[in-house]
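User: Last request for today: this protein with guanosine-5'-triphosphate, please.
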Amino acid sequence: MSGCPVTTAFRSASVILPLMDETVSLSKTVEIILAEASDDVEELLIVVCERTKPESMAVATALAQRLPDLVLIHHQNLPFLGGAIREAFDLARGSHVIMMASDLETDPVDVPTLIAEAKRRPDAIIAASRWRRGGRFEGYSKVKLAANWVFQRAFAVLFGTVLTDMTYGYRLFPTKVVQSIKWEELRHPFLFETVVKPLRLGVEVVEIPSVWKARTEGRSSNTFMRNFEYFRTGVKVRFAPRNSLLRS
Ligand SMILES: Nc1nc2c(ncn2[C@@H]2O[C@H](COP(=O)(O)OP(=O)(O)OP(=O)(O)O)[C@@H](O)[C@H]2O)c(=O)[nH]1
Ligand SMILES: [Mg+2]
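Assistant: Here's the final one, the structure of the complex with guanosine-5'-triphosphate:
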């Protein structure tokens, strides 16, 4: 029904960690993932670009030296956050991929829960939600919170889904699903594209609650005005012919 290849079992997860200006946050993210889920992790794909800070690069290099079988540093060719994740999708060797950040806003403590759920539902996308009971936002501005809620409700209706959080860049996907879809976004709206395209293709999406905490290190690479680009992405995908969403 979905037009995407089927995944019948969870084997391992490739964890994608895009990196710009994080140091301690990256180390902590890796430490927590390895303490909580190392048996299920295939690889940690740290994606860097020419704007990645030298001190962040140094932390990534040290991790790759300490964990040569696990950590891979990829220098992206496509620009921006979407470009970083799209290239990591194609590199992933695990049966599943986890899209998250290295700024601790996507709480790494939830990685084992994403994986446990994927073991029960290997063909589904497991999405972290800040709006589900048990999840929340800490340190998010009131204006952004209200705009986020209205956006979530409007696009849930437009896509006929009960999902509560379609813009959070913290999800686990079957690798075959992300490698079969034609991705277009390069900037932050990619985080939304990665749920709406699978939804249109009939892929099941399951949510788990998650707590988002504003980063204490580095800065967001997104701007408030860019959030309006998410509308264009949503409307375009909603009315695109299904077969145009897949790679040929
Ligand atoms: N390699 C790479 N990493 C990036 C790029 N842009 C952002 N990142 C990293 O991706 C993660 C998420 O980026 P943020 O800018 O914090 O995005 P966000 O928290 O989803 O967005 P807001 O909530 O709107 O601030 C962070 O760990 C960033 O360092 C990029 O162009 N290339
Ligand atoms: Mg962030």
